[in-house]
Amino acid sequence: MKYLSDIIEGLAFTELQGSADMEISAIVFDSRKVIPGSLFVAVKGTVVDGHDYILQAINDGAVAVICEELPARVTGEVDFLMVADSSVALGIVSANFYDNPSAKLKLIGVTGTNGKTTIATLLYKLFSDLGYKCGLLSTVENQINGEVIPATHTTPDPVELNKLLSEMVEKGCDYCFMEVSSHAIAQHRIVGLSFTGGIFSNLTHDHLDYHKTFAEYLKAKKTFFDELPSNAFALTNIDDKNGNVMLQNTKAHKKTYGLKSMADYKARILENQFEGLFLQIDSDEVWFKMVGTFNAYNLLAVYAAAMLLEQDKTAILTSLSKLTGAKGRFDYIVSPNKIIGIVDYAHSPDAVQNILSTIHDIRKGNEKVITVIGCGGDRDKTKRPIMAKTACEWSDRVILTSDNPRSEDPAQIIRDMEEGIDPAFKRFTLSIVDRREAIKTACMLAKPGDIVLVAGKGHEKYQEVKGVRSHFDDMEELTDIFKDIV
Ligand SMILES: CC(=O)N[C@H]1[C@@H](OP(=O)(O)OP(=O)(O)OC[C@H]2O[C@@H](n3ccc(=O)[nH]c3=O)[C@H](O)[C@@H]2O)O[C@H](CO)[C@@H](O)[C@@H]1O[C@H](C)C(=O)N[C@@H](C)C(=O)N[C@H](CCC(=O)O)C(=O)O
Ligand SMILES: Nc1ncnc2c1ncn2[C@@H]1O[C@H](COP(=O)(O)OP(=O)(O)OP(=O)(O)O)[C@@H](O)[C@H]1O
Ligand SMILES: N[C@H](CCC[C@H](N)C(=O)O)C(=O)O
Ligand SMILES: [Mg+2]
Question: How far is ligand 1, taken at its centre, from the CA of residue 131, in Å?
Fold first, then answer.
């Protein structure tokens, strides 16, 4: 059992009403989840203000409240703590509630627009293979030493996050590799965590619905590095335009990796084939199972981080050469008549360009590339025409379809995408709202040797339409269609 006085250690509050000697059973920031004895943290959200639910939380059994403004009516039986920013406070109290688990293991955070899941997953697989007990917090799933725990977010909320970290500590984990999304940084989900290292992959267009401008998006990512402690490492992709910016104000040890520029950790692509990458990493030449230039960056980031974590170079490279990446990233299947189907999570303009340029680089002859692609609803609208344009520039045929329309009209999302298409390419484009039909049509258009890329949903096992999630799996669809093709 924890007392409020323990939980608020290190928390800067402007006012305390009460004695802080309450026993606290749980930390809750959603009034609908309050249980008797909860500490309710009122957070201002993007849709509603948690302050409006304080009285409801108290009615349902909350015994203490952290807030930025006191409600009009306060009861004497409940402790109130006033803070400047409740979301920051939520991070601190969550870490305290679970006895600061992040300080008891080596926590590595990965941030950037693309590659976070791949890098974090590879690190998790690598360190597990090297004999360590590890944890993973990722978009695809969370893992504690082999046990899979479903993920709802790329970076969980502070309570869930510290709970998972404390389970990792309990199970004897030495390391945790986690994705740090820009939403998580902006919403202070990672406040109160002690990081051993931070890794930056790249920064390109995404999430401008949330961050509004690219400068704000960049600032969110940079904050992660600004707040790393001096004994941590800050590892950046120096080939990225903003790689150096990330390190500008960090107190951590600055380290760089890159394929093009001078860097602490360097690699060169010797071969880039469908079967894998042949890289020269520092002075070693090694074959890897992963495909594409962007994965050369991901592999190099993982290698550099493992070196910074003082692992043996030969052991790292030997293990890394055997590993495959995260689910739904360049997963492929070949039909009996030799059509290649690829499922990839590319859902930003840069990722679409990378995956398609990789397919171009590694295809053997003049096989046609047919791309099936949609864009998520209730997300950055400005990336829609760009993703469609990029898909068209790099494909022989494109079928625009639905991703997760969420609350939006799927046909309107497709119309937003069509805006980006050059009129000359229109006749090579089809728009089919039903994703299943779109994938089927792409496969019917394909001839032996052709490549069908199904982009955007990767590992996802659902499609969300009008707020309802139904089972949908791109790879399952392809497998189903391919078994009937002869
Ligand atoms: C835009 C965004 O990030 N939203 C997150 C945010 O919700 P919000 O700001 O809309 O919250 P709100 O509904 O306005 O409510 C404000 C507060 O009132 C509370 N409330 C609300 C109603 C009520 O009856 N009682 C009550 O107490 C809420 O619990 C909340 O604390 O805070 C919630 C609680 O932590 C998150 O679940 C929610 O994630 C939503 C579901 C989401 O979709 N987030 C995505 C965009 C996201 O975070 N994605 C990134 C990855 C992106 C990438 O892959 O690059 C991620 O890390 O997963
Ligand atoms: N280093 C990289 N640079 C550019 N694109 C990449 C890189 N790594 C992966 N990609 C592309 O981006 C897609 C998403 O990769 P991944 O899931 O690793 O990124 P992420 O940063 O975790 O994404 P999210 O923000 O959705 O969690 C991949 O399917 C691939 O198309
Ligand atoms: N984590 C990302 C995933 C987007 C994946 C795409 N399939 C979509 O649904 O838009 C987000 O929430 O923005
Ligand atoms: Mg991810």
Answer: 37
Q: What is the pLDDT of residue 229?
A: 97
464 Cα–ligand 2 center, Å: 21
- DSSP-derived letter for residue 53 is G
What is the ipTM for the molecules in this complex?
0.96
Q: Model-level pTM?
A: 0.95
Q: Is 27 helix (H, G, I), strand (E, B) or coil?
A: strand
CA distances, 405 to each of 102, 165, 181, 410, 468 (Å): 36, 33, 21, 5, 10
Nearest to 252 by CA among 268, 277, 271, 233: 233
Predicted pLDDT at 361: 86
Q: What is the CATH number of domain 2-97?
A: 3.40.1390.10
Burial state string for 99-113 with b = 16 or more CB within 10 A and e = fewer than 16: ebbbebbbbbbbbbb
Sort 16 into a burial class: Cβ within 10 Å, 0-12 / 13-18 / 19+. middle
Secondary structure of residue 342 in the 3-state scheme: strand
112 is in an annotated binding site: yes
Q: Do domains 100-321 and 331-485 have the same CATH topology?
A: no
Q: Where are the domains of the chain?
A: 2-97, 100-321, 331-485
Could you say which residues of the chain have pLDDT below 50? none
Which of 114, 217, 277, 362 most suits a substitution to test ligand 2, by most atoms within 8 Å of the C-beta? 114
- Find the DSSP H helices in 227-348: 243-247, 293-308, 313-322
Kindly tell me the sign of the dihedral angle through the C-alpha atoms of 385, 117, 308, 281. negative
For 100-321, CATH number out of 3.90.660.10, 3.40.190.10, 3.40.1190.10, 3.10.20.30 equals 3.40.1190.10
Strands 468-471 and 462-465: antiparallel
Looking at the DSSP bridge assignments, the partners of residue 150 are 141
* Residue 145 CA from chain centroid, whole number: 20
143 lines ligand 3 (CB under 6 A): no
Q: Ligand 3 pocket test: which of 118, 137, 180, 379 has the largest number of ligand atoms within 8 Å of its C-beta?
A: 379
376 touches ligand 2 (CB under 6 Å): no
Any idea which fold 331-485 has?
Protein-Tyrosine Phosphatase; Chain A (3.90.190)
